[in-house]
Amino acid sequence: MVLKIMSSFKMESSEINANDAFKIGKGYNEMLPFPTAINENPKDQTSKLSLTEKLKNWSIQGFEHHNIRDELNRIMSDKSLFHGDVNLGKEEQRVQTLKQLLAIAQGIFDKGLVQITDLREDPSKILAMMDIVSQFDDDSLMTKLIVNNFLFGAAVFNLGTERHHKLLPEIQSGRLLGCFAMTELGHGSNVRSLETTATYDPKTNEFIINTPLRTSTKWWIGNAGHATISSVFARLIIDGKDQEVHCFLVPIRKSNGIDLLPGIRIGDVGAKFGLNGVDNGWIQFENVRIPATNLLDRFGSVEGGVYSSPIKSPSRRFANILAQMITGRITISFGTTRTLKSGLIIATRYASKRLQFGPTSTGPEIPILSYPTHQLTIMPMIASAYAFDAIKVYLGRRFQERTDEAEIHVLASGLKAMISQYTTVSLMELRRLCGGHGYGSYSRYGRLIATVDVGRTFEGDNTLLLQQVAKDLLTQFKKEYSGNKFTGTLKYLGKNTSLLISGMNPLTTMRSDDAHLLSFQFLLDSMEFRSSKLLIQSAQTVSKNYKQTKDSFAAWNQSLEILIHLAKAHTETVIVTKFIESINKEKDIEVRSTLKKLCQLYGLYIIRQDFEFFRNSNYLKKGKAKAIIKLVGQLCSELSQNALVLVKGFGNEEHLMESPLGMEDGDLYENICKQVGGNFTRNNYLNSKL
Ligand SMILES: Cc1cc2nc3c(=O)[nH]c(=O)nc-3n(C[C@H](O)[C@H](O)[C@H](O)COP(=O)(O)OP(=O)(O)OC[C@H]3O[C@@H](n4cnc5c(N)ncnc54)[C@H](O)[C@@H]3O)c2cc1C
C-alpha cells in the first residue's frame, strides 16, 4: 500500500530512495488488515491515469464545454494576473480581482462563449465556467463574478423585461459594473421586511428612493466600490399603499465610475475573514429619483400611475421574485464541492509524502496516510466529494431542463446548505491533518476555510434554507396525505408506510453480514426509512405544538430541531439515490467498481453519523451497528490505497492548485521552502534597537 501511495509521487533523493520505499511498503503491508485494491485486476500506473480521466469525465457530465474550460485555463494561466499572493493588501486585492473579472469578461463573455442569457438558454455553460473559476486560489474572483453577472445581471434578466435586457451585453462585458443591493444593516434573511422605500411620484412618473432609517442602509453590498449602477430591493409605495418589496435599477456613480451621483452615500464595510478582493460596501439613498421604467417589472409594474401584477398574492409574488435568484445558490454548491476537492487533494498528497514514526525507532518511517485515524477522516470526505459530484450532475441537468421549478428549488436549497456546512467542517479537519504545515498561509487552508465559511451565510443562511426544504416537504405531504399516494420527491414515503406502521422485521434489524450491509438496497432502504419517519414525526410535532400554542409561527419554531433533521435527511436520501442511479448506469467496469465502493462508504458513513436516530427507531440492533463501524473502517483502509488516484480523479486543474503541500510533483519540502523563501523584513522596532 505504501508503495502505491509513494510511487505516484516523485521521490526525493535527499530523504529516501525507491528501494527503501519498497522495503517500507512491504513491511507495512504486512501490518495492514485489509490489503485489497479498488481494481479487481490491479494494473500499472498508466491504467490508473486513465481511470482518473474517466472519473473526471464522469463528474462533469452534462456541463463539459471543453472550449469554455480551455479558454478559461488559457486566460488564468497568466500568473502575472491570476496568482494567489497572500501578502497583497485589501486595496491591491480589490484592484487585482477587478482586473481578473475584466479579463474573463473580455475573454469569455465578449467572445460569446457564455452569456447572461444562458441562465435560461444553456445553464450548463455557466456551470462549466464556474467549475474552473471556483478552483482559483482566491474566491474573490468567483464571488465578484457571481455578484456582477449572476446576481445583478440575473436581476436585470430575470426580474426585468425587454427594455432592461438591452443592458446585458454591457453588464457581462464589464463595461457596466453593477451591484446587487438586497441586504440591509437591520435585515438579512427576512427580506420581506426590508425598509428602503421606492415611492412613486405621479407628477414626474418617477420613483424616489430613500433610506428612512439607519437600519435601512444597504449593507454587505459586493461590487459597491466599483459599480456605477445597483439593483436595489425596496418597498414599492404607490398612492400611499405599500405593494411590498420590488427591485429597481438605481444609478449610483457617474459614468467615470468614481464620482457618486447626488443623494448617494457609499462606504466600505471593511476587511473580512476572507474574500478581501471583493469590495463589499454600504449604500444610503436620499431622495434619489429614477424613471418609473427603472422598476424591474416582470412581476409587478406601474403603468399610467397604476400598479398591477400578474401574481395577485403578495407572498406568492415575492416568492417568485426571490426564486429567480437561484443561480447563485447552485453555483455555491458547485464551487464549494471544488473547494472541498482542493482541500482533499492537498491533505491527501501531503499525507502520502509526510513520514512520521515507523515500526522501529531507528528504521524508516511510514506515511501518515497509513494511519487508520487519517484514513477514517479523509476517505469518507473523498467519498462525499464523489457523491456531491453525482448530485451536482443531476441538479445541473434538472436546472437545464427546468421542468419542475419546485424540485430544483428544494434540491438547490438543501444542497447549498449541506455541502457548504460539510465542506467548512471538513476543511478544518483537513487542515489539522496537515499539522503545522496546514496552519501556514502557504498551505492555502486559511483561504479555503474563509471562503467556504461565508457560503453558509450568503445566498440564503443555511438554517433558513433547510427550513424551506422542510416546509416544502410538509406542504407536499399534506397535499398527498389524503390520497395516500405519494409521488415525485415523496415517492419513498409510499414505499415505507407499511414499515412505519408495523415496524421493522426483527431479523432484518439484526442482519449484519457484509453482503446485506454493502448492498445498495440496504443503503437506500435506510435513507428512505429515516426520511419517511422524520417526515411523519415532523408533521406530528408541528401539529402537536400548534394545538398547544394556537400560533403557527410559535409551533413551527418549537419544531425546528426535527425539521432541520428532516431537511438534512431528505437531502442525503436524494444524494444517495442519485449516486446509486448514476453508478448503475455507468458502463465502464473500472469506474463502476470504484464508485460502488465510494458509494458504500458514503452511505454507511451517513448511517454511522446518525446512529442515534437509527438505534432509537429500532432500525439497527447493536450487533448491526458494530458491523457497520467495522465495515466503514475496512472501506476506508481499502480505498486509501488508491487515495492519490481518487483525488487526481477529481479533475482539478493542476496549475490552479497553489499549495506547496498539494502539488502533483510531490516535491513537498522543496516546494514549501521555495514558497516561503525570503528573510524577515526588519521592522521599525528592531531597527530602533540596532
Ligand atoms: C461576504 C459577504 C458578502 C455579501 N454580499 C452581499 C451582496 O452582494 N448583496 C446583498 O444583498 N447581500 C450580501 N450579503 C449579505 C448576505 O446575503 C446575508 O448576510 C445573509 O442573507 C444572511 O443574513 P444576515 O447576515 O442578516 O443574517 P441573519 O438573518 O441575521 O441571521 C443570523 C443568524 O440567525 C439565524 N436565524 C435568522 N432567522 C432565523 C429563523 N427564522 N430561524 C432560525 N434561525 C434564524 C440564522 O440562521 C443565523 O445563524 C453578503 C454577506 C457577506 C458576509
Automatic annotation (TrEMBL):
One of its GO terms (molecular function) is fatty acid binding. Residues 179-288 form the Acyl-CoA oxidase/dehydrogenase middle domain. Transmembrane segments: none annotated. Residues 520-678 form the Acyl-CoA oxidase C-terminal domain. It holds the Pfam family ACOX. FAD binds at T183, G222. The active site is at E459. Keywords: FAD, Fatty acid metabolism, Flavoprotein, Lipid metabolism, Oxidoreductase, Peroxisome. InterPro entries: ACOX_C_alpha1, Acyl-CoA_Oxase/DH_mid-dom, Acyl-CoA_Oxase/DH_mid-dom_sf, Acyl-CoA_oxidase, Acyl-CoA_oxidase_C, AcylCo_DH-like_C, AcylCoA_DH/oxidase_NM_dom_sf. Gene3D superfamilies: Butyryl-CoA Dehydrogenase, subunit A, domain 2, Butyryl-CoA Dehydrogenase, subunit A, domain 3. It comes from the Eukaryota. One of its GO terms (cellular component) is peroxisome. Its cofactor is FAD. Belongs to the acyl-CoA oxidase family. This is Acyl-coenzyme A oxidase. It comes from Dictyostelium purpureum (Slime mold).
